[in-house]
Amino acid sequence: MQKFSDLKNRFQSNIIPTVAIAGANDESIVEMAKNILDQKIAQPILIGEYDEIKNKVDKMKIDKHIEIINESDLKKTALVASGLVREKKADILMKGKVSSPDFLKAVLDKEKGIRGKDILCHFTALEIKGYKKMLFMTDAGMVTFPNLDEKIQILDKAVNAIHNLGISDPNVAVLSITEDINPKIQSSVDAAELVKLNQKRKIDGCTIEGPIAFDVALFKEAAEHKGIKSNISGNVDLLLVPNIEVGNMTAKAMMYVAKAKMAGLILGATNPVILTSRSDTGEAKINALILARSILKNENIA
C-alpha cells in the first residue's frame, strides 16, 4: 500500500460504517459529509444545531439521506456522538466543531464514553512521495512522554491496527538520536529493551529494531554509509517516536516540507476515534475516515 486510495480500494462496497460527528454545524463538515456519502466511505450522523446544519445540507443540494440530531450545546454534541458509538448505533467517532478537551472528556465519560481498558494513543498514517509504501507513526498526539510500559501499550495498539490493514509482520523502528545505547539518552535504553522483548516474543507480531536514527530507519543508503547493519532500513512500516514533541514535529515536517498526506486516529477506545485539527483540510479528514474504516473489521461494523 502506497496511498490512501489503496486503502480505500480494499473496502467492501456493500459494507458501509456509520460515523457520528460531534459539532457538525460547519460548512466544511457538511461538505465532507457529502463527499464521504458520494464516495461510499461512511454514512454520517451530524450532531449539532439542527436548523443550521439542515440549511447547509439543503444549500449543497445533498440528495442522499443524512441523519441530523439536534443539540445546540457544543459540549453535549460530543457526549451524544460518543453515546451513539457506545450503543452500537455508530462505528466511528469524529470531532467536528467541538473543542478537543470537551471531545476527549466525552470519550472518557463513564456513562457515554467509549474508553477501552488502558492507554489512549495516537496513530498516524503518512503517504509520502519518495517512500515506497505508507508509513505509520506513533505517538504524535496523545501520550506526552511515555515510559517503557506505556511504549509497550502504544506499540501493541499500533501493531494491531497495522495487522487490520493487512500487514502481518510490520517492521518497527524505535527512534532515537543514536544507534548506540546511552544511559543518558532514555529513548536508546527503552529501544534496546523493546528489542529484547521482541526477541523473547513478549512483544509479538512485528520485527523491532532500535535504537535507530530517523535517517537510518528510512534510507538504506544512510545505514550503508554509516556502516550499520539493519534488516529493516529503508523498509520500515512503523516509527515509534520517543515523545509527543518528536512525533508532532516529524509529522508536520512531513506534511509541510515533504508534502506528505496525513491522517490520524486515536487508538485504545472501543472504536476508532478521529480527533481532527483546526488546520486539517477536507482531504485530511476524509483520509482519516479511510484509515478508520480500514482498521475496522467488517464483522464489527454495526
Would you write up a description of this structure?
Helices cover 39% and strands 18% of the residues. By secondary structure, it is of the alpha/beta class. The strands form two sheets. A six-stranded mixed β-sheet has the order 8-7-9-6-5-10, with helices on both faces. Helix 2 (27-38) links the parallel strand 1 (18-22) and strand 2 (43-48). It is elongated. The protein starts with a helix and ends in a 7-residue tail after the last helix. 46% of the residues are buried.
Cα-based radius of gyration, to the nearest Å: 20 Å
| Poorly predicted tracts of residues | none
| Largest β sheet strand count, sense and barrel closure | 6 strands, mixed
Summarize model confidence as the mean pLDDT: 93
Class from helix and strand fractions: alpha/beta
List keywords for this structure.
single chain, 302 residues, alpha/beta, six-stranded mixed sheet, 39% helix
SSE inventory with pairings:
Layout: H1 4-8, E1 18-22, H2 27-38, E2 43-48, H3 50-59, E3 67-70, H4 74-86, E4 92-95, H5 100-108, E5 121-127, E6 135-138, H6 148-164, E7 171-175, H7 186-199, E8 207-212, H8 214-218, H9 220-226, E9 238-240, H10 244-256, E10 261-267, E11 273-274, H11 282-295
Parallel strand pairs: 1-2, 1-4, 2-3, 4-11, 6-9, 7-8, 7-9
Antiparallel strand pairs: 5-6, 5-10
